[in-house]
Every structure is written in structure tokens, then in C-alpha cells.
Amino acid sequence: MGPAAPLLLFLLTWSGPLQGQQHHLVEYMERRLAALEERLAQCQDQSSRHAAELRDFKNKMLPLLEVAEKEREALRTEADTISGRVDRLEREVDYLETQNPALPCVETDEKVTGGPGAKGKGRRNEKYDMVTDCGYTISQVRSMKILKRFGGPAGLWTKDPLGPTEKIYVLDGTQNDTAFVFPRLRDFTLAMAARKASRVRVPFPWVGTGQLVYGGFLYYARRPPGGPGGGGELENTLQLIKFHLANKTVVDSSVFPAERLIPPYGLTVDTYIDLAADEEGLWAVYATREDDRHLCLAKLDPQTLDTEQQWDTPCPRENAEAAFVICGTLYVVYNTRPASRARIQCSFDASGTLTPERAALSYFPRRYGAHASLRYNPRERQLYAWDDGYQIVYKLEMRKKEEEV
């Protein structure tokens, strides 16, 4: 027997068990394949059944969808018809408002020049001498753009008519001490606008919504302890603050020379003095108990806060909500409660140029809200309004004061 005989004998001995294992493995694989085929057949049956159910459901839904589409078209047609009727009704209301406007409240020459009924001496109720050639008045409030909703129902937002053209100043609330400053309008309109703003804190909280940004300064009214509405010795005083926005310091302050102050606007009771700026400079709108039915107007020196002139206007306090000044003319905005369409119903020209016959009584665009503040920008000829937390821009159409309405 050769040398390979032992190896051959070993292979012959183990070939039997290996063949048995291979046979069991093949049987196992066949069983697994059969189980998979059975599951695939079940899945196919279920898919066929689901497809049939889906076809039945589709056949049932198609008629319902057709009915719903017809009803939707009918509702759309009805809504368009109603919208057309509302538009016609609004046009008719606008026509009636135009044909039957409220009586204008433009001061007569007699009172402007200090004739009978004039109060005070010296520079009270004297005709104002214009320092610029501005001779425009409002023809109409042309358009409206809602920019954002920021803050509470009362506040103020504005630009500095003498400062950088892009900066936006926002003063939220009627008793606060922190102003938001945005680099540009785009930053203010962002969803997370407050993150883009720098904050300026004033040493004394302001009162109301009569603040003004003018020439790099924040002018605002401060209620001293015991000031208007607080009782005490200072019940009849209101302090004006001139705050430097860049240096964050109080530059000047002055006690406003009017006694027994009351809110000038019957619908904005938190404001005791409303500061305004136009082409002529700095103005103040206020009211006192001496004549609790009408507004007063004062011309201020922006450098010293001194009161240069004062006027008793014929514009009533009742239902007034805000005011602004353009080219030396005070325009008072009126509304109702609950709020309806705001309107410029009274104007007072301190120079006496605008006569009652030439005064336009303008309605604001169709929006039923309440203005907590209005700020005129003479550089842009726009109004910046705060309406129940919404920040709105109104574009104004102007004409010469001498032109007929």
C-alpha cells in the first residue's frame, strides 16, 4: 500500500456525513423559499383587494367631488356678487360723505390776529410769520401701507426729519423708558425685528404717545411726581425733556407754560401734550381746563424749549384721536368708539393763509381702527401712524393753500 492510502481512507470515511448535512441544508432552503412564496402570494392578494377597494372608493367620491366643485363655484360667484355690492355701497357712502361733509373748523382771521375773544397778551393768538416758503395743504390722504404689528395698542414710530433718512425709532407704550432704534426700515419689518434694534433708555419715563424725534434729539413729556393726573403741588405742570440720542444725556428740560392741563384728544386720554414737527419747526398740541372743549397750539424753540407763540384753536377735543402739523397748519383727526373711518375734520392755520373755503376735509383709506399717534415727515410727505399695534404709512397728496378745493 502506497503513501497516499491513509489520506484516501480518511476522505472516504468523512464523505458520508458531509453529504447528509448538504441534504438537510437544501431541504431547509426549500422550506424557506416555499414560505416566502406563500407570503408573496398573500401580499399580492391583499394588494389586489386594496386596489379594488380604492377603485370602489374613487367611483363613490367622484360624484361627490363634482357636487362640491359646483357648490364652491356657486359660493365664489355669490361672494363676488356680495363684494361688488359692498364696493358700490362704499362708493355711495364716500360720495355722501363728500357731498355732506362735517363743518370745517378753520380759524377766522379775526381770531388769528387777536381780535375780540382773544385770550392772553403778547404772543398769544397772534398771526404766525412763516420762516419758510412752505405753502402747501393736504388735498387727500392718498394711500395706506401696513408695515408690521409690533408692540401694544398704543405707541409711536417715526423717522427723524432732520437726521439719517433710514433710521426708524419705535417707542412702545404710554409709560415707558426704552426706545428701539432700527438701522433701516427693512430691519424693522423682519419677523424677529427686536433683535436688529439697539435700545436707548431715557432717565425719566415718557407719558402718553406725544414724543418726537427731531434733529438727533428725543423730545418728550414727563410727568413729575404729582404732575397731571397725579395730584399734589405739581398737579398743573408738565415737564418737557430734550434727550440727546447719541450721547444718551438730557440736554435741556422745561416746565410747559400751561396750567391745569387735560388730555387734548378725547379718544387718546393718556397723552397730555402732543409734540409735532413740520417744515417750520417744533410744535405742541395741548388743552387746559380753561377751555376744556377745544385744542390749543404752541410754537416751541427746539433749542431752548421756550414757547414762542400760543393759539386757542376752534378744533374740538370731543372724538379727537390725534393731530399733526404741515406748513404751519394744524390738522386734527377724529374718530368714534367703537372705531370707524378716521377723518381730518378740523384744521387751523396759524398764519391765517388757509381759509375755510379752501380747507379740504379728508377721510383716511378704508380701515376701521384707532390712531394712537400720527407723525408727519416733511421730507417724505408721509404720515407714520400707530393703529392698535399696527405700524402704518399714509402717503399724502398736497396742493397750494391758495388753490380752490
Automatic annotation (TrEMBL):
SMART domains named among the record's database cross-references: OLF (SM00284)
Gene Ontology terms describing biological process: signal transduction
Olfactomedin-like domain location: 133-400
Gene Ontology annotations for the cellular component aspect, listed alphabetically: extracellular space
Localization per Swiss-Prot or TrEMBL: Secreted
Coiled-coil region(s): 26-99
InterPro entries: Olfac-like_dom (IPR003112), Olfactomedin-like_domain (IPR050605)
Presence of keyword Ribonucleoprotein: no
Keywords: Coiled coil, Developmental protein, Disulfide bond, Glycoprotein, Secreted, Signal
Signal peptide boundaries: 1-20
Family: Belongs to the OLFML3 family.
PANTHER family, alphabetized: OLFACTOMEDIN-LIKE PROTEIN 3 (PTHR23192:SF8), OLFACTOMEDIN-RELATED (PTHR23192)
UniProt-recorded name of the protein: Olfactomedin-like 3
